[in-house]
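In this section we turn from sequence analysis to structure. A common task in structural bioinformatics is to predict how a protein folds when a small molecule is present, because the ligand can shape the pocket around it. The inputs are simple: the amino acid sequence and a SMILES string for the ligand, here S-adenosylmethionine. Study the lines below before reading on.
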Amino acid sequence: MAVTVVSGGLSVSEGVSETLEDVPPHVWKGLPDDMRLRRSAVNPNRIGVWAAQALPRGKRFGPFMGDKKKRSQVTSNVYMWEVYFPARGWMCVDATDPLKGNWLRYVNWARSAQEQNLFPLEINRAIYYKVLRPIGPGQELLVWYNGEDNPEIAAALEEERASSLSKKNSPRAKRARKKLLERERLAAVGLRGLKSTGPDRLRDRDMRESEEGVCETCVSLKA
Ligand SMILES: C[S@+](CC[C@H](N)C(=O)[O-])C[C@H]1O[C@@H](n2cnc3c(N)ncnc32)[C@H](O)[C@@H]1O
């Protein structure tokens, strides 16, 4: 693989063959046990991700890691996802530099809806890949989006929404919400003589995180 230095990082030149030797150690380390990296069948210049075991429909992987950049800073869209942040607008998670990405960077684009077996979804402004139809051992993982007009994807997104909603209404989420509200109420009326200590603050943060995690599942990608 030929590499060009881009703002201190490595960038794969398009059209140049990537080899297994180019895969950084952290990617090998993070690769799940049931996955293999080897030459892609859909793009001979690329490495692809292959299932070593059956992967059931609905299994989710991620998040897709990369450099967070503005669109204007991205030089190639092959390894980037755009995500909308209400306060900042569209931002990109760019894994062009292999050192910045994780193993999901090596999942290639399906050439047709028929060979697509993963679809991307956005949860709390991070991109995950979810298994659209069961993947057998020895099959290459291939992602594609074609929006909610595909009935299979529409059904999978609906399932994701329903599961997020049921997590939001789970006893655990309700307890966390109740505790957080109580804490905030006490703080507001000045009944807490002491300032939050480190662990206290961490607990508050944990509650907020679990709130965000269960409350806000967004599955919108640009059509
Ligand atoms: C990371 S994905 C492709 C993955 C695969 N590794 C590949 O190289 O073929 C990049 C593609 O998704 C498109 N894309 C990025 N953000 C998107 C979004 N929010 N909605 C829909 N498509 C998006 C990009 O334009 C680009 O074509």
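The longest strand covers residues 80-85. As an exercise, try to locate the residues that line the S-adenosylmethionine site and compare them with your own expectations.
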